[in-house]
Structures are given as C-alpha cells and as structure tokens.
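So, can you check?
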Amino acid sequence: MVDLAYSDPDLAELYDLLNPWGPGDDFYLGLVMSADAVLDIGCGTGTLLRRAREAGHRGRLCGLDPAGAMLDRARTRSDVEWTLGDLSSAGWTQEFDLIVMTGHAFQVLVRNEEVRTALSAIRSALTNGGRFAFETRNPLVRPWERWTPDRAIEVTDVAGAVVRVEHEVETPVEGDIVRFTETFTHTGWNSPRVSQSTLRFLDVESLSAFLTDAGLVIEDQFGDWNRGPLTGTSPEIITIARRA
C-alpha cells in the first residue's frame, strides 16, 4: 500500500524509480504465478500484477489502491482489474485464492481496530484455504534508527534530473509506533515535497494473535526473501497465512 503522498502525480511518476524491482518482488511473483485469482492490496503502479501478466498468468488479477495517481500509471495495462479504494469499500466475498500486501503495506495499519478490520475483510475475500502473504519489518532490529537524513537516497530520472529522498524519525520512539517525514527534492521543482507517515512495528507474537483472532492460520514465516528462518536478527517477518 503506497503512502497517500503518491496521490501527487509528480511523486507517482517517481515511484518505480525509487522502488525498483527486487528480491521481494521475485518472491511474490512466484506466489502470484501459482494462484488462479489474485488480489494485490496497495498495488501502487501495478508493477507486480503487470509483470505476472507478462509472464503468462491467465487467471484473474486485481489491484486495489487508494492513490488515484498511482492507478493512473497502472492502467497502462487493461487486462488487469484496477480498483480505486481500500478494503473497507471493496466488499469481496470468497473471490481470491491469494491476497498479497507488498512493500510493508501492512504496517500502515496502525490502530488495533484497523488491523482487525483489514484482516476480517481479507479473510472474507479469500476462498476456503486461500492464502494471505505479506511482510512487516522486524522490530527487534530497529530499522527506523537508520532512517536519518545522512542516509538519503538519490537517483537520476530519465531526463537527467536528480531526485533525493530524506527520512527523519520523530523521537523518542515509544512502543511499536514510528512517525517520520519523507522529504522529496527534485532539481526540476521549485520546492521540496514533504509527507508525514506513521507505521506500526508489530512483533511476532502480536502479529500471530491478530491473525488467529481473524481466522487465519500461519502456514509459513521467513526472515528474508530467500526463505531463511525467522530469527531475532532477521530484517523481515514474511508471513503466509491461510484461511482456516
């Protein structure tokens, strides 16, 4: 699920440049290719589903995102369903045998009620035995401590302009909620664009409890995109849960 800052068409245009295809995308693509009907929650520019179609997926592919500017870019491919909105407005019932939330989208669900509502809608949208795959950052490795302005990301767009993204976390960080700003600068803009974001870093036990309460059973958990074991030093908590 993409930050709503990407409702800005200028930022939506930069999204794929700032978030290139990587090992996580390969992981999810393998799952998508083995499923008949797939829902990508927070699909952004639709890269995953478009790649699946290019790779020969012949079943149903549906992308859901709240940022219209991102879906405008996704809609360059018309053989995928693109839906503007969120889980609360979708209302699917037992239509997908795989649902994915990539790009740490699950972490934008901050309040307990948001998590419960989302998981309930996901379970409802899954077929019996359908799977939900997603990842969250492991709070034990405290990744937000590396989100500092001196570790800014810089890329060059197709026109040769330099794009810089800086992160700054609000301190002190208390509990499992992290608030931060992202500042985007572009040599072609008159001024930077700043977005404010909030993420939740659930630990393994809390995550498991939410899934169980929603009627979802953990099938697999990994600590990295190579399907390595989940440990205290793993960067990710990658979860595949099944509708019970």
